[in-house]
UniProtKB/TrEMBL annotation:
It comes from the Bacteria. The keyword Transmembrane helix applies. This is Spore germination protein. InterPro entries: Spore_Ger, UPF0353/GerABKA_families. Belongs to the GerABKA family. The lineage of its organism: Bacteria, Bacillati, Bacillota, Clostridia, Eubacteriales.
Length: 489
């Protein structure tokens, strides 16, 4: 039941109960213009000096007197010279929400509403350089943790009137502000309705990251591959929005969620569009080769060495046989052990403080790895294959998680079933990729169903002269034509 407006003392008492007597809830009561008033804010979220300079100091020297708080609020909203734009707050619940968001709230005795004003002064991280989407050319700017500042980074890049940023709340206890970003002239209406409907069904107790919302936007939650993308770059988000996609951001995180997201986009980056077309196409092909190498190489090596050793050259076969004879574990168990060890090293280096994180890699490489080979616990061929596949996995960082799991599965399939197991698992992987769809759009677009778009900006990238007449958007997908509405609203 909504809290009814009462006298100033009753309203302040209700707010004190809501905050549970927290020491960071600050209230400054004063007589202004002949009316009992109060300025409320949360210490460290909002600045007391800001509230004083914006509101209390100008009203302290105001000579007019008002009968009742309603008249004072009307004066503030229209004829006063206070240096802020007050926003009416209609309910006491909204007063609490504004205080929790870092705004200041001005209450007047006898008024049936309040005014909120921006007085945020909390510590925040400035936009820095991207950590996971590093580029050579183009912008070096990444999102920060404050949603409102991220909105400004987006608005600065897309200046057309079609850009829309809607906000909603998520998380029962956290009441995290969520931003829904799209271009109203480019987005498919069915896609937009589907995203909004799924976000409205989020019933989480808490939301601290955009990743909390990603599972609610997926159609295949048990698939190894995700049809929801993540980005920390404002230019990448703006480019996807201009392709008709929808972005979702949560306050407190520097990552945005993109839907729909296609398999080919894992192999693309912003540098592709600043480089020469032939070099960008070469890099993309190299990434595809690195992906399949990271997934298949250890499994194929184990399958060939165990089931069809005649396929190996004589000298290599002799070294593999000698290495296997000198180690206590079967070849496929040895490969699994090495890959698990590499994942442990990576995780340890990632979670440890940066000052000592690099030493973990040195200890693992120089001491554990070298000593294990000399002592006869591990074989050199298996270590080399695992190292090559791990390095190739880093080339496509957005697919690192499925690459790691698939690598293990292919080693098991190759060690237990041989080449037949590799082929069967590879077919199952392709079937899984082809079965994924995001709001009715195939995960394999624009490669399948095949179209001219796959030649312009798919595995290869054509020149801007070839692409400027047509940029691939969600309207080009089967079943989506006519779905988007052109022109202004």
């Amino acid at each position: 039941m909504a809290q009814q407006w009462g006298s100033l003392s009753e309203n302040l008492e209700w707010l004190q109960e809501q905050f549970g007597g927290s020491v960071d809830f600050y209230v400054k009561e004063a007589q202004l213009c002949g009316t009992s008033c109060a300025v409320c804010l949360c210490d460290d979220l909002a600045g007391i000096e800001i509230a004083w300079n914006m509101l209390l100091r100008p009203l302290q020297y105001e000579k007019q007197r008002f009968e009742g708080g309603e008249a004072l609020l009307q004066y503030l909203s229209g004829a006063s010279g206070v240096a802020f734009s007050p926003t009416p707050v209609k309910t006491m619940e909204d007063v609490f929400a504004n205080l929790s968001a870092g705004n200041g709230v001005f209450l007047a005795d006898g008024a049936g509403q309040a005014f909120s004003f921006a007085a945020q002064s909390f510590a925040q991280r400035s936009p820095g350089e991207p950590d996971s989407e590093v580029n050579v050319y183009g912008s070096k700017e990444a999102f920060c943790d404050v949603l409102r500042r991220n909105m400004g980074l987006i608005r600065r890049r897309v200046r057309s009137e079609g850009l829309v940023i809607e906000t909603l709340k998520a998380g029962r206890y956290t009441q995290t502000e969520i931003a829904l970003i799209y271009h109203r002239d480019l987005v498919d209406r069915r896609l937009l309705r589907g995203v909004k409907k799924r976000l409205e069904k989020v019933r989480l107790q808490m939301v601290f990251d955009s990743g909390y919302l990603a599972p609610f936007l997926e159609n295949n939650p048990y698939s190894l591959f995700s049809c929801v993308g993540l980005t920390e770059r404002p230019d990448t988000l703006c480019a996807k929005v201009c392709e008709g996609k929808v972005a979702v951001m949560a306050d407190g995180t520097p990552y945005a969620v993109l839907v729909p997201f296609f398999f080919t986009e894992n192999f693309q980056c912003m540098d592709d569009y600043s480089s020469r077309p032939y070099y960008a196409s070469f890099i993309r092909i190299m990434k595809y080769i690195a992906f399949f190498t990271a997934v298949l190489l250890p499994g194929i090596f184990v399958a060939v060495a165990n089931f069809t050793p005649e396929l190996l050259p004589g000298q290599l076969l002799y070294k593999v046989a000698a290495s296997e004879a000198a180690t206590p574990l079967p070849l496929f168990l040895e490969a699994i052990f090495v890959n698990i060890l590499l994942e442990i090293v990576k995780e340890a280096g990632l979670r440890l403080p940066k000052a000592i994180g690099h030493s973990v890699s040195l200890v693992a490489a120089l001491i554990v790895g070298d000593a294990a080979i000399k002592f006869g616990i591990l074989g050199s061929p298996v270590v080399i294959m695992a190292a090559i596949s791990s390095i190739c996995g880093f080339v496509v960082p957005s697919l690192y998680q499925p690459i790691t799991i698939l690598r293990m599965l292919f080693i098991l399939a190759g060690g237990l079933l041989g080449p037949l197991g590799i082929v069967l698992l590879l077919m199952m992987t392709f079937f899984n990729i082809c079965s994924i769809n995001s709001f009715g759009m195939p995960y394999t677009a624009p490669l399948t169903p095949y179209g001219a778009e796959s030649l312009r900006d798919g595995v290869l990238r054509m020149s801007w002269q070839r692409m400027q007449g047509h940029v691939f958007t969600v309207e080009d997908l089967p079943g989506v034509k006519g779905g988007r509405r052109r022109g202004k609203r």
